[in-house]
Structures are given as structure tokens and as C-alpha cells.
Amino acid sequence: MKLLHLADLHLGKRVNEFSLLADQRHVLEQALALADRHAVDAVLLAGDLYDKPVPPAEAVELLDWFLTALTRAGHKVLAVSGNHDSPERLSFASGLLCDSGVYIAGEYGGAPLRITLEDEWGPVDFTLLPFVKPAVLAPFADERPKNADEAAAAALAALPPLSGRRNVLVAHQFVTAGGAAPSLCDSEIAPVGGADNVDAARFDGYDYVALGHLHGPQRIGRETVRYAGSPLKYSFSEARHHKSAPLITLGAPGSLSLELLPLQPLHDLREVRGPLQVLLDPANVADPDDYMHVTLTDEEELMDAVGRVRAVYPNLMKLDFDNRRTRAAGGQTAAAEVERKSVPQLFDEFFELMNGGGMSDSQRELFAAALRASGGDEP
């Protein structure tokens, strides 16, 4: 049986206010082609299918196209919700989708979802565990779990793997191996204090563990506990990543092989630095349509640097300066910038980032009232 592992699609995501829907369609078309070329039996989607709990209509349409294309080509789909998804929305029509070979574990209902598929070697059990945390397990446990590790352990104990059979787990958690933390990216929220950590030892009964949550492709402990990583680069901390989709081949019990199939972006996400004249020299310009972070090192003042760079790199996402003046100024750190701003200013910026526009007057009044009631700063 052949499986293709994908995760963290984050459909509908915007990076530096650039919509990536066309890029996401491009990489999903590649995933579909890989599934066809390698005669994949099932595609595993390990959470964060969407970037927001309430995704834009275009993102919903894109996922609908992808699932429909996969099932029409004869591939089963086994998916779980991630921390960015709305479990309830992903669970919608899940009963009907099962009839088409699309199995989605959106909400946790007291036990993971188990789907069994057959090949010439017999059954393969797929355990689908959506993103869980202590609050999710509380209604189903005599004692509320203290952390994510206990929550995941309790959830898996409700439906343990059957011995003598091949078992695959699809999950979306922050997984560590013996306390060793995985590699993180700027586009991820770093856990604090270890409360979100789930130890990879919890997965010892599974032949392969298809993880989602982290954007860097990597193994956790053993080779067969693996983050697929996001199919696209979603921050400049990922600029050096090589995105891929693991292809897992299950043979007879105890036999498993793994291959990383590369994924190529419609537009790469790159960083370059140097003097303006050097960077814009046609001899040094490669792939000008890529998403760019440009750092200029010129010492003299530059007129309309953004416009001049964007004339060559139209998809410029970020422009920085690194010279004697910026270094002498201390390059105002993000922490210092936050310290200078009031709570209303910070909330206003957060609201605009999440909604694509500022608050209305009535929304500002509601926020001011809530802030006064909490004893916070006056706007």
C-alpha cells in the first residue's frame, strides 16, 4: 500500500499581505500528479488544512477541488483537523464524504477515528487523531489531563493499535523525542514551558506516524515518526527549506520504505543582500518573480529604494537596510517596538492584520469599554 503524506496546507494564507492561493493551487496540482504517478492508495492530510478557522470562500473552493480531484482519480483521503482549523466546520458532511473515500476527523468525540483499508497483505488500520489539548479531553476523562502529552496519551488509549496488524497514525501535535525539541520556523507559535509537548514514545505501536503542525520537514526520534512540513514556504525563516511530500510504501507486516518527493513552488521565497546597484544588475538578477526579502547595505541615502527594487522584483515582500546608520541606531528591535506602543495600538494593529482593515468607530468603542472594564489602559 502506498501513502502520500501532506500537512499544513494553510489554504487561504497571506504572507506579507500577498495572497498565496495561486501558489497553493500550483503545489496541490503537483501533489495530485505525484499521487497519480506513484499509484498512491491514500493521501494523508495531517491538519491545518486551512489557515484560519473561518477560511475565505476561495480557500474552501480550493480544498473542495483538491478532494474531488483525488477521489475521482481513485485515491482515498484520510485527514485530521489542526489547531488552525475549525473542527466543527471540517466535520461538516463527513458522513457523506466517507461514501466517497474521504475520511475526516474534525472533532474529537471521545476516541480517535479508525479507518481500515485492505491490500494484498491484509488490513491496514489508520488512526485519525485531530488536534487535542487538555480542554478537549476533559469531558471524556475522569481526571482532566494536565498537559498535551497526557491529553494525547488518553486519546490514543481510547483506541489503541491492534497487535499483529499494520498501524498508521495521523496526528497534529507538537512532538518531541526524549525532550529534544524539533526545529521551528518563524511562522509557527513556539510552545512555552513544555505544556504543549507530546513525547514521540506515545506512538511506539504505530508503523508510521504522519504528523502535522511544524513547517520544517523532519523526523522526530525514529525515521517513521515524521513531519511532512508545509508544502510551501510561509516565512523567510523557511527560505532554505526543501519542501517535499513523504511517500510511504507498506509491504508485509514489518516492511516499510520511505521516499521524499520534492515539491516545486510557483514562486520561490528568497532572501538577498548587498548594495542596490549590485542586486539590480541584470547579471545578478535570477527568478525576478520570486517572493523576495531584500536587505540593502548601501551607506549613502537612497531615493525611492522600494520602487527601484520592485521595478525588478515585483513580488518584493520585505525591504530592510543594514549599514552603519542602522547598526548605530541599534536596529530598533521588535520587543522594543512593542514596549513603546499602548494596548489599544497593539490591538488595532492585530485587528487590521487578521481582518485586512482597521476597526470601525463602533468597534473601537466596544474595545475601549472592554479595556476599561478590565482595568487596562485607556485608549
Automatic annotation (TrEMBL):
The lineage of its organism: Bacteria, Bacillati, Bacillota, Clostridia, Eubacteriales. Keywords: DNA recombination, DNA replication, Endonuclease, Exonuclease, Hydrolase, Nuclease. Residues 1-216 form the Calcineurin-like phosphoesterase domain. PANTHER family: COMPONENT OF ATP-DEPENDENT DSDNA EXONUCLEASE, NUCLEASE SBCCD SUBUNIT D. Pfam families: Metallophos (PF00149), SbcD_C (PF12320). InterPro entries: Calcineurin-like_PHP, DNA_Repair-Maintenance_Comp, Metallo-depent_PP-like, Mre11_N, SbcD, SbcD_C. Signal peptide: none annotated. NCBIfam families: sbcd (TIGR00619). SbcCD cleaves DNA hairpin structures. These structures can inhibit DNA replication and are intermediates in certain DNA recombination reactions. The complex acts as a 3'->5' double strand exonuclease that can open hairpins. It also has a 5' single-strand endonuclease activity. Residues 266-354 form the Nuclease SbcCD subunit D C-terminal domain. This is Nuclease SbcCD subunit D. It comes from the Bacteria. Belongs to the SbcD family. Heterodimer of SbcC and SbcD. GO terms for biological process: DNA recombination; DNA replication. One of its GO terms (molecular function) is 3'-5' exonuclease activity.
